[in-house]
Amino acid sequence: MTGHTRPAQPEYRPPTEATVKQLYATAFRCGKPECPRPLYRMNNETGETILNSRIAHIHARRQGGPRWDQQMPEADNRSAGNLLPLCLEHAAEVDETPAHYPADLLREWKREQLREYDTIQRAWPITDDQAAEAVERSFGPQQEATATAAAAAVAHVARCASRLVETSRQQRRSAADAAAAWQAMRARWAQRLGPFFAPDTGDRLTPDEAQVEPPRRDTEECESALRSTLRAAKEATEPVATDLVAELGAVRVVSRALGPWCDQVEHEVRALVGAAAKWDRSDSGDSAWSQAVARLETAVQALGAAWHEEEACSQPPQPTVRQSEATACPPAA
Ligand SMILES: [Zn+2]
Q: How confident is the model at residue 324 (pLDDT cuts 50, 70, 90)?
């Protein structure tokens, strides 16, 4: 009896350390244009140079991977021309959402990265050990699964948060319409019954001051219309909020240091869902809801900034280069 064996999925070997050294010797910062993050950074306390990047494949080295090209021979697949050093976040992003990053675009980034090197002559001539580390971090079995996970999760949180805000905004329009219909109904009644005067002074009063309410039947109808839009808002926003909270859980797992920022985002998510389910008739500008949106956006930005702070160029090291300008930060492109 012969066992049922599935044909192995084609998978090429990772690039050699020599190729990796070549990559870092001809690039200074993340290959995504406009991204200022250097490929290595300096630990200010120890003076250590820390790998701050991963090597992305323009065409994946596995069948089914991002931008996999069946026609490409292994030698080309693992050559420098098919490899692009990127910061952690962007390395994760190009593989997480490959549809947004087609091979042609990445090739353009690659050309741009090399062009920049030709101009500024700054790069990272790394040692064999560092090259081995870069290979392990970029292509080691564990790393591919987890090292970029935090970056991907932070990016997911930001996307979920925009989706939550957008969903809530759409729902809010229906609630605003229902509230406006209610106001209009009251105004019609006030006009019919008014004007109103204070019994003691004889001063003219607004319908609110006079506490005039339309007939119960009309009020109830408007109230129930508003209630049902708010219920719909709750139903529409809650699943998005749940996704977002799950993503925050993923961020906490991969980066415990970001826990407090995640807690803050989660708090604001719940506050927004709460605000979206309420309508305060005295709050004519709907400011409670707007403030909840603004606070959530601020919290998400703070989380992103905290993540970048961990990875970005607080004090990038001064690479040994031919013309060391030794500036404190990478070139602004
Ligand atoms: Zn980047």
A: very low
- 221: enclosing H helix or E strand: helix 216-254
β-partners of residue 56 are 84
Ligand 1 centroid – CA 16 distance (Å): 23
Q: What is the pLDDT of residues 70-129, one digit of tens each?
A: 999 999 999 999 999 998 888 888 887 888 999 999 999 999 999 999 999 999 999 999
Distance (Å) from CA 90 to ligand 1 centroid: 5
Distance 97 CA to ligand 1 centre (A): 15
Residue 227 is assigned to a structural domain of this protein? yes
**Total number of domains constituting the chain:** 2
Residue that is written with structure tokens 């009644």 in the block: 189
Binned at pLDDT 50, 70 and 90, residue 197 comes out as confident
Q: Are 265 and 126 in the same domain?
A: no
Domain residues for the domain of 251 are 151-311
Say how many Å lie between the CA of residue 131 and the centre of ligand 1.
Answer: 20
**CA of residue 172 to ligand 1 center, whole Å:** 36
Does one domain contain both 101 and 220? Answer: no
Residues 133 and 156 in one domain: no
Q: Which residues pair with 54 in a beta bridge?
A: 86
Dist. CA 217–CA 187, nearest whole Å: 16
* Lowest mean pLDDT, pick from 5-9, 250-254, 321-325: 321-325
CA of 321 to the centre of ligand 1 (A): 22
State the distance from the centre of ligand 1 to the C-alpha of 96, rounded, in angstroms: 14
Residue 270 lies in a domain: yes
Distance from Cα 2 to the centre of ligand 1, integer Å = 50
**Per-residue model confidence as pLDDT tens digits over 25-79:** 999 999 999 888 899 987 777 778 888 899 999 999 988 889 999 999 999 999 9
CA of 305 to the centre of ligand 1 (A): 14
Compute the distance between CA of residue 88 and CA of residue 54 in angstroms, rounded to an integer.
6
Distance between Cα 35 and ligand 1 center (Å): 5
Do 168 and 278 belong to one domain? yes
From the number of C-beta atoms within 10 Å of its C-beta (0-12, 13-18, 19+), residue 86 rates as buried
